[in-house]
């Protein structure tokens, strides 16, 4: 099979030389990496500083994403462009001016809420979803203005539908699957997926076992059939990968993702008592070199070469162009 | 006289539409503006956010400086490029990674110390100057790497000479005059000025009355003769303006500049009890439209058109090219 470049819509690995080499070996030309779950602005800046050091240390493998043109550059140079994103709005604290500041520091995606209610939107685990808040409306407008994409992966349904409606630029659900295939709070209804596609947005399909039918035992064929059905629903231009790969992370990290600094109880999130840790990845997707097998699987369910290129990178690339460009004053 | 564009090496005005119009009317194409005296990182970010709002509000008059090419853009568009600088190293706190972060947020100049001892260097008011500290050496190297210019305007002599020696890029004294002309701690010895010029650095000549012979009563002719003598000493390629104009600021601001958050006494700095406020500007230099009169005065003391262009903007422009460009990884 001819090499097809991949853009991954979300990863949060325990970054290392090995992982960056696997990205290169897997033809992964751009990855949206999470740089914040619960961190304050200052803590997020420290995370960016850690990335600055990685960019120096591993400059032969990775470089900081600046604009959509960097995807072509990554293809040409055999490196991976790293796109920053936040899984929560905690870095902007309660200060709308920090949206622009975060954009200046390279942040290109921000989720409006992470499981819980935030200052901006409801999370997918709240009993009631009250929609986009007053500040949320302002922040969506500001994100549109400065070129930062709205991500609703962990938000509630009503908030998500409102964000699709309010945002003047297409929005993303960077890592989730259709709830019809596997009904959990993190996966999305057909209503959301259709509205997302109609507004020009993007869905990144997740390989995190809690989002997969049969979890860790999910088969590659089942995953590929699900993609074919999702394309049926959304069209071939609005679907890509958002693997949610958390490679080499210790279990303490998933506990921190779920509990952050917001609770004194233990929140098990998608896990359960006795199964608190990271679920095991399916054996056909454990690192960045495994996208190739998925593309092979997608070919088997009937996608053409042109369609595979859209799913693998073309759709995300178009989204990058539409989402991040900003009129320089 | 033919219009000559001006780059000013330092201002800290009470920014307003009126002042930005005067910049445009005075053909001031770029200004290094102070965004921090004593502020922490987070406070400096708030100051940058305030500038982001100004860039939106006054986009017909000003825009954020990104690279040396913006000077030509400003000339063409009749606007002013705003270059951020810090008069102290307080924004990097004790974290060397904040140098790069500050550079990403647009900061292009940083003084290593402001009057007092800092983590990096001694200030010009300390009884003893112990030179560049261990952290100071690291920070100079990091500033060289990321493209942020070292400014030693308020530092002690030994620290300044060491910074000139240690820095691999030329450094600046953005706002000061020769001590030979007016001997105060803030003005610089011939030894410093010669070392600065020999290393390719820049001196911005100050119009702050405490730096002028006869203070507020200094004549334009005296100021222009001083420039001629400074050019004699340093060569015509290493001198420009650094007006230190603090237009429309209330006296509380100069008290804050001097006292910041470091003392419970009152430090009078260059002032004195009974004369704590801002000194009155000489009547021939009160706003950005008055550079034209200075250039006329310089012509009278014998400078050619070509030399005037160097002094007015050419030298600073060369310094910008040499100081801020950074190899993109």
* Total DSSP helices of chain A: 11
Let me know the number of strands of chain A.
9
Range of strand content of chain A = 5-15%
**Largest interface, Cβ cutoff 8 Å:** A-B, 24 and 24 residues
Distance between the termini of chain A: 45 Å
Question: Which key terms come to mind for this protein?
Answer:
homodimer, 329 residues, six-stranded parallel sheet, 9 strands, globular
What does this structure look like?
Two copies of one chain form a homodimer. With 329 residues, chain A is α/β, with parallel strands linked by helices. Chain A has helices at residues 17-25, 41-57, 69-77, 97-104, 134-146, 157-166, 190-198, 220-234, 251-259, 291-300, 305-324, and strands at 6-11, 28-36, 62-64, 80-86, 107-111, 149-151, 172-173, 202-205, 239-241. The first copy, chain A, has a single domain, classed as Metal-dependent hydrolases (TIM Barrel). In chain A, strands 1, 2, 3, 4, 5 and 6 form a six-stranded parallel β-sheet that branches. In chain A, strands 7-8-9 form a three-stranded parallel β-sheet. In chain A, helix 8 links the parallel strand 8 (202-205) and strand 9. The longest helix of chain A has 20 residues, at 305-324. The relative contact order of chain A is 0.15. At the A-B interface, helix 2 and helix 4 of A face helix 2 and helix 4 of B.
């Amino acid at each position: 099979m001819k090499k097809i470049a991949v853009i991954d819509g979300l990863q949060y690995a325990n970054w290392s030389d090995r992982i960056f080499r696997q990205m290169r070996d897997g033809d992964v030309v751009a990855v949206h990496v999470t740089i914040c779950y619960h961190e304050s602005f200052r803590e997020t800046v420290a995370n960016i500083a850690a990335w600055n050091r990685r960019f120096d240390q591993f400059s032969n493998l990775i470089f900081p994403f600046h604009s959509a043109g960097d995807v072509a550059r990554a293809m040409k140079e055999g490196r991976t462009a790293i796109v920053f994103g936040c899984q929560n709005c905690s870095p902007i604290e309660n200060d709308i001016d920090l949206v622009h500041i975060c954009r200046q520091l390279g942040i290109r995606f921000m989720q409006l809420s992470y499981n819980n209610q935030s200052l901006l939107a409801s999370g997918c685990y709240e009993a009631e979803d009250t929609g986009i808040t007053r500040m949320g409306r302002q922040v969506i407008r500001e994100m549109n203005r400065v070129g930062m994409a709205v991500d609703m992966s962990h938000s509630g349904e009503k908030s998500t539908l409102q964000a699709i409606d309010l945002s003047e630029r297409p929005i993303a659900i960077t890592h989730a699957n259709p709830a019809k295939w596997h009904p959990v709070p993190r996966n999305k209804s057909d209503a959301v997926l259709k509205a997302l596609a109609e507004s020009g947005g993007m869905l990144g399909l997740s390989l995190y076992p809690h989002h997969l039918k049969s979890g860790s035992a999910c088969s590659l064929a089942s995953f590929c059939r699900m993609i074919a059905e999702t394309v049926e629903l959304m069209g071939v231009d609005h679907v890509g990968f958002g693997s949610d790969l958390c490679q080499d992370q210790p279990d303490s990290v998933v506990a921190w993702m779920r509990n952050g600094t917001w609770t004194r109880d233990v929140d098990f999130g998608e896990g359960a008592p006795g199964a608190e840790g990271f679920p095991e990845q399916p054996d056909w997707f454990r690192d960045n070199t495994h996208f190739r097998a998925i593309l092979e699987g997608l070919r088997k369910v009937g996608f053409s070469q042109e369609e595979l290129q859209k799913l693998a990178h073309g759709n995300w690339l178009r989204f990058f162009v539409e989402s991040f460009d900003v009129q320089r004053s």
